[in-house]
Amino acid sequence: MRPWGAKSYNTPVSIPRVYWPLGEPHSGGVEFTGDEAHRLRHVLRMAPGDAVSLFDGRGHEWTGQVGALTRQGVAVVNLQPITPIPEARASITLAVGVLKGDQMDAVVRDATMLGAAVIQPLRTAHVTVPPKAWQSGAARERWQRVAIASATQCRRAVVPEVLPVADLSACLRASAALRLMCVEPAVGAPAADWRPAAAPPESVLVLVGPEGGWAATEVEQAVAVGARLLSLGPRTLRAETAPVVALTLVSSAWGW
Amino acid sequence: MRPWGAKSYNTPVSIPRVYWPLGEPHSGGVEFTGDEAHRLRHVLRMAPGDAVSLFDGRGHEWTGQVGALTRQGVAVVNLQPITPIPEARASITLAVGVLKGDQMDAVVRDATMLGAAVIQPLRTAHVTVPPKAWQSGAARERWQRVAIASATQCRRAVVPEVLPVADLSACLRASAALRLMCVEPAVGAPAADWRPAAAPPESVLVLVGPEGGWAATEVEQAVAVGARLLSLGPRTLRAETAPVVALTLVSSAWGW
Fold first, then answer.
1. Residues of chain B whose pLDDT is less than 70?
2. B4 to chain A: nearest residue by CA?
3. Is A188's CB within 8 Å of B244's CB?
4. Three-state DSSP class for residue B253
5. What whole-number distance in Å separates Cα of residue B181 and Cα of residue B194?
6. Other Cβ atoms within 10 Å of A42 Cβ, number
């Protein structure tokens, strides 16, 4: 859904964006080669003089124009820093039980779009995806590429870092000002009654189970280290939708 | 994500559910034929004595056991009414610009899972899906089937009604205690600052634009009839994710 007004922050939505992870671009301009040059030239069909924006994935963004199109690449010149879209007021880590390929890609895409600063794939009791699907670095590289593509699309200047798959216990040991474990209501379960404090905490860890949900011992383990329980409503959510619902609740809690 | 405790309301998540739209089942039991019989027997591999639950799509649910498996069908006997999962505290209509096939199916599926009571597909200025894709009754029938399948999965006892495609102006004329139009922030646009009142309104109309967003005149038209503007955050959301974010905000506003 595009903004309905004329401009969104400093970058009109009609201006294509390109990921430029190499730091402050040279004042004289930069040159894209390889995949990004292909995208600019053949997918976006950009011509010299067309407006384009660059973002570094760490919160910086610049606008410029397409310069020379050579056999080697596409130049972007006249770069000027612009104000990027603001980040969420709390730094949010989404820790989520590993899902199968398409579902996990959707979770990474949507978590990027909903403002997660870090994505922590989890190995939990009920993860059913075989380890060979996520143990190599290839899965993490793919998820990181998905995050870059999603940041490009949603006009975010920050690309969340996708961490290597970790155990729940290691994840719970990492520091976080607020830990929220997402649960659905169940008879006899501890009440999920987290309400946001007036001011955002510095960091929030949002824990979402895999397709099979949490084992009871996992909930106990999280509660033992101070995690609060967050209800995602009375209905059984699809595994790849639960993170969208959770991140909406947390990101909007302090006015986005 | 399944509940992590033993039971969810009266229906443990392990009990398969079947849609039974024919009203109060006969006390002696009911017999499924056709697709539902096939699903019970060959997909769910149910045997006599297995627990099953029936829901009528209008808020009623019963548990029973599989009885006789005959060539004609599958009987379900010993039916007892149970307490269904509660509905949202406000009756929510999701009105959404028509999206292409897969995306619209996902929106209907997710809106069902997030508690919409009615789904109103909209023809708006920026809808790009050709009329032949949605003008016949076939599209509406497919969306209604998607809603039934989603209610079955998410354990909801109510199936939202999918209305025929309507114009935005007709939709705005229909009665609703609260109208919310979802917008993304844009420089110079009226501020989106809806905050929920303490008590839920009787009915809420949630308006979400199609892939191309709202035309400025459409926002003016909604504001003119008293619609409030609801922000879905600073980033550009995918068209099929915006309804999930909007329904999460509205459904959770009064404690789900």
1. 1-13, 185-191
2. A214
3. no
4. coil
5. 10
6. 9
Q: Which residue has the tokens 């039916």?
A: B79
B115, B247 contact by CB (below 8 A): yes
A66, pLDDT greater than 70: yes
At residue A127, what are phi and psi to the nearest 5 degrees?
Answer: -70, 130
Among B256, B237, B62, B230, which residue's Cα sits nearest to residue A1? Answer: B237
Residue in chain B nearest A209 by alpha carbon: B1
B160 and B72 belong to one structural domain: no
CATH number at residue B23: 2.40.240.20
Chain B hits for A253, CB-CB cut-off 8 Å, are none
**Dist CA B252 CA B256 (whole Å):** 4
**Enclosing domain of residue A27:** 17-82
The two tokens of residue A95 are 């820790």
The ipTM is 0.92
Scan for tokens 């009885």, then name that residue: B67
Q: What is the three-class DSSP state of B136?
A: coil
Residue B213 forms contact with A (CB below 8 Å)? yes
pLDDT tens track for B156-191: 999 999 999 999 999 999 999 999 999 976 645 566
Whether residues B105 and B26 share a domain: the answer is no
pTM over 0.80: yes
Sign of CA dihedral B137, B138, B140, B141: positive
Using CB atoms, pick whichever of B154, B189, B231 lies closest to residue A235.
B154
Query: Residues A215, A125: contact at Cβ < 8 Å?
Result: yes
Query: Based on the domain organization, do A28 and A129 belong to the same domain?
Result: no
What per-residue string of b and e applies to B168-198 under the rule 16 or more CB within 10 Å gives b?
A: beebbeeebebbbbbbbbbeebeebebebee
CA distance B76 to B69: 9
Total domains in the fold of chain B: 2
The residue out of B82, B107, B124 marking a domain boundary is B82
* Contacts of residue B242, Cβ cutoff 8 Å, sequence gap at least 6: A1, B182, B208, B209, B232
Residue B77 and residue B29 in contact, taking contact as beta carbons nearer than 8 Å: yes
Same-domain status, A222 and A176: yes
Supply the pLDDT for residue A9: 43
